[in-house]
Structures are given as structure tokens and as C-alpha cells.
Amino acid sequence: MADEVKAAADGRNNHGLKRVLSFRDMTFFYIVVTLSLRWIATAAAAGPSALVVWVTALCLFFLPLAFSVMELTSRYPHEGGVYVWAREAFGDGIGFVVGWAYFMANLPYFPSVLYFAAATALLATKGQGAALAHDPVYFAAFAVLWLLVITLVNIRSAVAGKWVNNIASFGSWLPVLALIVLAAVAYVHHGSATHFTASAIVPRPSLKNAIFLSSIFFAFAGCEAGSGMGDEIRDARRTVPKALLAAGVVLALCYILGTVALMVALPSSAVSGVNGLANGVRVLCAMDGVPWFAVVLGLLITLGAMGSAASNITSTARLPFVAGMDRYLPRALGWVHPRWRTPWVAIACYGVAGMLMTVLSQAGTTVRGAYDVLLSMTVITLFLPYLALFAAMIKLQWKPVGEGVMRVPGGAKAAIPLAAMGFVSTLVTIGLSLIPSAEETNKVLAVSKVLVATAVLIGSGAAVYWVQRKKVVVG
Hints:
Elements: H1 2-9, H2 23-34, H3 38-45, H4 50-75, H5 82-90, H6 92-121, H7 136-156, H8 158-190, H9 198-201, H10 207-219, H11 236-265, H12 276-287, H13 293-316, H14 318-325, H15 344-362, H16 367-395, H17 412-433, H18 443-474
């Protein structure tokens, strides 16, 4: 009893973690973890029809996901997020495999987003770093170094970790605002590089558009990540819904208006790939007579991408932490540092795993090839847990709720169709993500690598649970 009183006095919960995340912190967190400017370049590369696809993804995926996260977090405002939700709905086995897939999915995500950051950082060299744009060593070293830094920061202090996210969030939305202003000036003086006609805005069935659709749905993923830190959020039941609403408005405006701005600067053919956004920024600044501003924007965009990786380590490392406490992973993963009050073993192991993934994914391929494979692996492995999230949302509608739980407006009659829409959208996204890009020379090999890697990740999770469950039962 004395320990519980002491924990409450210094803002801790019964795990010894500190409740340090406020509404402001969670709003910034959702922005930096979800808003990735590389998707703006991906959208601009698809042409004006991308604007319709943005709205479609917002309605069919983001809104069902946001409402589901709001209710599930209110039902279970604890550490673990999607791992806990799947466990409560379907039992320990499925819960563990879902959690395993979710935190393993971020391993290829780390190098993919940091490759984007590395490409954008070259804007600060004013062209002198052009030789590095296709250098695998530069990209891999950049990713590994930043993963090391954010791992150490998050181990040292939850407060320091949240401030990394807060500051990095300015590197997400501020460059978009600057792009919009630059594009408006360029349009007045030079017109638009893209023609926004009624026929061009209507999406047409094609392989390119199918791949693009899966990417855009993935751009709205991430709002569930904050709930993984439920025991570190002040009044999670109220804070999470308010922060999601505020961040959601920013996300929608930034993605749609940022895409328009980039298409004003360049034709769609010039903004594809890992360097697409950097090219757009450089051209816009040159058109407006402020080439030096490209350096500023490059540094800001790099900060935002690095913050996205940092926020994912901050939140997702909490899943193996909870699994360690449940004894389905080694108990050491559930340790809390006695002085820093952080799940330091889980964070350290997760950071090191991200570094290893960076090195292994680059082996034997080009920068562009590694980037595409990493992206496809991330989409499939991350979207499998979303299927479980939406399914859990549906099943838990029949479970009684406690006092103070915030539900989807309309209750189960609205929640079930909404979650079902999210489930179907996720299933379609997984299928589309298997289609290799037109630039891929060996399409069969590319698909095979993604499927095999995904199967290994999921199968290894099931094997770990089976082995650890026997130990738990014996213990």
C-alpha cells in the first residue's frame, strides 16, 4: 500500500512508469507518428487523381481507425495498445501474435523512413552531396546512427523522449505550410506544372493506381500507436480522443494541400521515389528565387522523418515490455529502470533490432530496391494487426463497458459497420501492397521476398508464444 501511495504521489502507475504525456504531447505525437511527407511525394507522383484517393482513404480507413482507437483506448486505457485489445477479444495466443506482428512491422519501417530522411538531408549540401544520393553506405549509416541516438534518449528519460517527438512534429507540418506558400507564389508567377482538369482528377483503374492506393491507406496508419503508452498518458480515456481529433484535422489538411503544392512545382513523373520530395522542394525554392530556403526545408523535413522513427520506438517498444510482464517474452523485457522509470530493456532490444534490420535489408540491393522492399514488408506486416484491431472492435461490442468509457456515437449500431468498413479496407490494402512497382525488374522475386519475410515474422511469433506458453504453464 505504501508503494502505491508513493507511486501516485510522483505520477507513476503500478508498473512504476511515469504519467508524463499530456494532451499537447499526444497531439504532437499523433502528428509526427502519422504525418510522413514522403507520402505527399508518392501522392503527387500519381497525379491529380491522388486528391480523390486521399479523401477515400480518409473516409474508408482513417475515420474507422480513429473511432476504433478512441473506444478501445477508453475500454482498456493501459500499456500495450493493440496487443491488449486483441488479447481481451480473442485470448492470449492471438493477442501475442498480433502484438508480435505489430512491433516486428516497425523494424523494416525504421530504415525505410530514415532512408527518406537521409535523402532529404542532402538538400542541406546545396548539391555537393549529390554523389551520396545513390550510396547505400551513406543511407545505412544515417539510419543506424539515428536509431542509436533515439534508443539511448528513450532509455534515459520518458520526458526526453516526448520532447524529441514534440520538437520533431514541427518538421512534419511546418514544411507543408511552407510548401503551400511557395506553391502559391510559384503558381502566380509561373503557373502550374500539373493540369488539374476534371478528367485528370477522376482515378482510372491501373496497376500504378492500385499500388498507390495501398500506399495512401498506409499514410493514415499510426493513430493507434499512442495507446501503447496508455499507462504513461494522463487520463488516457479523455486525452486520446481529444488529441486524435486535433491531429486528424492537421493530417487531412497537410496531406491534401501538400500534394497540391508539390504538383504545382513538378509534373508527376519528376516526384517519384525516395528523392521525390527533395526534388520538389528544390524546384519550388528555385522558382520563387529563394534557393537557400531549400536548405531550411530540407532540415525540417529530415527532422520530421527522424521524429517519426523516434515516436515509433517510443510507443512500439511498450508492446514487448507488456509481453515480458505477461511472461510470453523474456521477463527482462518487462523490467523498469529503478531510476529513469523507463522500460529500458525493451527499448534497447528494439532499437538494436532496428539497426540490424537496416543492415540486412540493404545487403545485395540498390537504395531504391531496398526502399521498395522495406515499404512493402511494412505495409503487409503492419496491416495484419489492423485486421485484428477492427475485428476486436466488433467482438468487444457485446462486452459490457465500465463507467466513464467513451463509445462511438450511436453505440454498437454505428461501431460495427464502421469497424467492418475498416476491416475490408485493410484487407484490400494488403492485397494491393503485394503488387510490385513498375520499376521493379524482377517482380516474382520482389513479391516472393515480401511474402517469405512476412511469413517468417508471423510464424516466428506463433513459435515464440507456443514455447513460452509451456514455460508459463510449468512455472
